[in-house]
Design goal:
Largest sheet of chain B: none
Order of helices and strands of chain B: HH
Distance between the termini of chain A: 40 Å
Distance between the termini of chain B: 62 Å
Largest sheet of chain A: none
Number of helices of chain A: 15
Oligomer: heterotrimer
Number of helices of chain B: 2
Helix content of chain B: 40-55%
Order of helices and strands of chain A: HHHHHHHHHHHHHHH
Shape of chain B: elongated
Strand content of chain B: under 5%
Chains: A mainly alpha, B mainly alpha, C mainly alpha
Number of strands of chain B: 0
């Protein structure tokens, strides 16, 4: 039986719309809720980021208020962009993509909408707590303990929904993106529960809490954000170009090697620290082994796109996705190198690491999310994005901003590390030498934030105002231009 | 105390061997064959191989739309 | 077992494996570490109590960890010991009472693992917290003036009023006194001392 031509689960048979339209529309309200929320948090998180960045070179800036002190604004920034922007955008993309790949209409829409509202409440409440001084100083787990129970419940709803769609699937083949998404939706709740129990629940003691902390935090990148980002690239790259993935076998190899190696890398955050040598070595080995999945992904993506890079001018999603996918390769190779002792001796504790972190979460994951949202938006609403100029503005502001961010802090941070390892250089000199680079980072952040505002304006217009001034070729059907356009 | 180490390492070894056995079984029974079918599973008659599915919206003014450079081809 | 079950098993297996390796096994190895008992019956390390314990919560609440590390790397790896940040590397035993450990990942400011040894002056710490520029020109550490109260002179200067260097003196009529949180934080900072001999680092 060829299951793939069946009507999707949950759609009436026969239907007046294509199966894709039916599935996409079923996800519309929930995905729009998550995406809109995520972009709101992106703006909030960007605001916190700018304040934090300015405070580092101008420490008196807004310096009179405890709730804005750097030590609170910085974790407020991290948590709003990780649990607000990144996770909610990721969930929106995950739900839409799973529905498409399984050919199932979205189940449990009301519980998912409630989950979206409660997720917003939890992020807001947790962030408020941090600013009020109740942050835990456990990196990536700064929200006070009680919020983690709320998140645990919301993850359960998400997991249940994704697994239900997977169980009801009407396809005979499980596409590679689906493997990644299934992984993320099973891995992250486990991570989150264990991380909280071990650290906030004090089931681990002393430095084992540090090891558990970085097992958790690094796996938020490796087993939550990376799989969602790669799932999006593996689906959207071929769909946009109309070209199948170059080597499907490589993509499966890449998935399993990622699953096997990525989650051992966490202790590379503690090289030189007060933990057993074997624990550090394990982290370094896991980090270096990541060359395998990252290379397979890079080859696959490159060979799929090769010869068609001119399409970057035509497709808004493609330029964000390609920027993101290339960043994934760079940040992963850089990360593998940073786990080596000789490199780590210089880069640890410096702004070099900050640049690396943003290359991953922003240049890879966030840019892929931007591209995914540009693809998904019209398919949820049935309307075009209102303005190509806004999309291009968003791209260039964020791309140039990110490049400036990374170059400045990587260059400066490396020299900061070298200076710090020279005991003849006073510590204050390592601080003063970074000031120009911290200013360049603020400037980069301003560009990126303006880009986010531009993005939010586009989103506002297509989701809320239902605007579409477009009269020519559509995102859906470029060939419509050939026939004269249908508006 | 030693019992705990045996339990932890033992269960890890058991898990590991199970997964390896499962992988060997999957390969033997042909679960991982036919990769080209997998790669093209996301295309169909509505959105076939060789056709782009994304483009910038046209400009707001009623200018003549520029057709994309890629028409349907064999991908 | 079909392909899907293999997928589930594989996914869960890979994460459980790393969970066991990076948390359970180290906990077994390090969970039973005990403090060292000195000849006079005192122990190292000791669990913080009173003002020091409260100071630790202030440190956490203000997020000091995001700029300051508390770990001394081994000799030959970086220049931590040569910089005077400690006489030995820090080890797991130093942190057995830390909930959570505040190892830190940034050195925007210097490492604080032995700051109690390196800077034992309460007056220095209070001035530095009030306005880091006073003690450390060029510093980008933010001012924590909100940890202090500003009073007007009534009868006589309180004993704990800050004494400023001449160029920073706000004048006779302005009295700056530390709040309870400021004094607790300073007590905590002065308690940070990881120089005690430990068996893991033979002298």
């Amino acid at each position: 039986m060829d299951k793939d031509t069946d009507t999707p689960y949950g759609m009436p048979e026969p239907s007046t719309v294509t199966w894709r339209e039916g599935v996409d529309r079923s996800t519309a309200v929930v995905v729009m809720a998550f995406v809109a929320s995520s972009v709101a948090w992106l703006l909030v998180g960007s605001g916190f980021a700018l304040v934090a960045s300015i405070k580092l070179h101008t420490p008196g800036f807004l310096g009179d208020w405890a709730w804005l002190t750097f030590g609170r604004i910085r974790p407020a920034h991290l948590n709003t962009v990780i649990y607000g922007w990144g996770s909610m955008a990721g969930i929106g993309v995950l739900l839409w993509l799973t529905a498409r790949l399984c050919r199932v209409t979205l189940p449990f829409r009301l519980p998912l909408l409630v989950a979206c509202v409660l997720w917003n409440v939890a992020v807001a409440g947790g962030t408020w707590s941090i600013l009020a001084g109740h942050g835990t100083s456990v990196e990536w787990l700064e929200f006070p303990y009680h919020w983690s129970f709320v998140f645990a419940g919301l993850f359960a709803i998400l997991m249940f929904s994704a697994l239900t769609m997977f169980t009801r699937r009407r396809v005979s083949h499980i596409y590679v993106s689906q493997w990644y998404l299934l992984g993320s939706v099973l891995w992250f709740p486990f991570l989150y529960a264990q991380g909280n129990a071990l650290i906030h629940g004090n089931l681990a003691t002393g430095v084992v809490q540090a090891s558990a902390n970085w097992w958790f935090a690094h796996n938020v990148l490796g087993l939550w954000f990376t799989p969602i980002g790669l799932a999006a690239v593996y689906y959207l790259l071929p769909k946009i170009l109309g070209r199948p993935i170059h080597s499907y076998y490589l993509s499966i190899l890449g998935f399993w090697t990622l699953a096997l190696f990525y989650n051992w890398a966490g202790t590379h955050h503690l090289i030189g620290g007060p933990i057993p040598a074997w624990l550090v070595t394990v982290g370094t080995v896991g980090s270096v082994m990541m060359f395998i999945p990252v290379t397979t992904v890079a080859i696959n993506h490159h060979m799929t796109t090769k010869g068609h890079f001119d399409k970057l001018r035509i497709s808004p999603t493609l330029r964000f996705i390609v920027f993101g996918a290339m960043s994934y390769t760079v940040v992963s190779f850089q990360g593998s190198l940073q786990a080596l002792r000789t490199v780590n001796e210089v880069s640890h504790f410096t702004h070099y690491t900050v640049a690396h972190a943003h290359l991953g979460v922003y240049s890879f994951f966030s840019m892929v999310m931007f591209g995914s949202i540009y693809y998904i938006g019209p398919r949820l609403t049935g309307r075009e994005w209102p303005s190509a100029a806004l999309i291009k503005g968003h791209f260039w502001l964020t791309a140039v901003g990110m490049a400036m961010y990374w170059v400045g802090l990587t260059w400066g941070g490396w020299f900061q590390g070298l200076a710090m390892n020279n005991p003849d250089i006073p510590f204050m000199d390592t601080v003063l030498m970074m000031i120009p680079y911290l200013w360049s980072r603020t400037l980069a952040g301003v560009l990126m934030t303006i880009g986010h505002v531009v993005f939010a304006v586009s989103l506002w217009r297509i989701f809320w105002l239902r605007a579409s001034d477009v009269k020519g070729p559509t995102l859906f059907d470029p060939s419509a231009a050939v026939t004269g356009g249908e508006g | 105390m030693a019992l705990i180490y045996i339990f932890i390492f033992g269960s890890v070894v058991v898990f590991g061997l199970t997964a390896v056995a499962g992988l060997v079984w999957a390969v033997r029974t042909g679960q991982l064959r036919d990769f080209s079918a997998g790669a093209t599973s996301i295309f169909d008659d509505d959105e076939p191989v060789g056709v782009m599915t994304d483009a910038f919206p046209a400009v707001d003014e009623a200018a003549a739309p520029t057709p994309p450079e890629e028409g349907p081809d064999s991908g | 077992m079909n392909r899907v079950t293999l997928l589930y098993v594989g996914i869960l297996f890979t994460v459980v494996l790393s969970f066991a390796g990076l948390t359970i096994v180290p906990q077994q190895q390090l969970g039973s570490l005990e403090p060292i008992v000195n000849d006079d019956g005192t122990e190292y390390p000791i669990e913080p109590t009173g003002l020091v314990a409260h100071g630790r919560t202030v440190y956490i609440s203000l997020g000091c960890m995001y700029c300051h590390s508390q770990q001394v790397r081994p000799p030959g790896f970086g220049a931590d010991i040569e910089r005077g940040w400690g006489n030995r590397r820090t080890v797991a035993r130093d942190h057995i009472y830390d909930r959570p450990p505040l190892l830190g990942t940034m050195r925007t400011g210097p490492d604080l693992a032995n700051i109690g040894l390196r800077q034992p002056s309460s007056d220095w710490h209070l001035l530095h917290l009030y306005n880091p520029e006073i003690t450390s020109p060029g510093s980008i550490m933010p001012p924590f003036s909100f940890l202090f109260d500003e009073l007007t002179l009534e009868i006589e200067r309180p004993y704990d009023a800050l004494s400023f260097p001449p160029e920073w003196d706000p004048g006779e009529d302005v009295i700056i006194v530390p709040t309870f949180d400021a004094r607790a934080l300073v007590a905590y900072l002065k308690s940070l001392n990881a120089s005690h001999t430990v068996p893991e680092v033979p002298q």
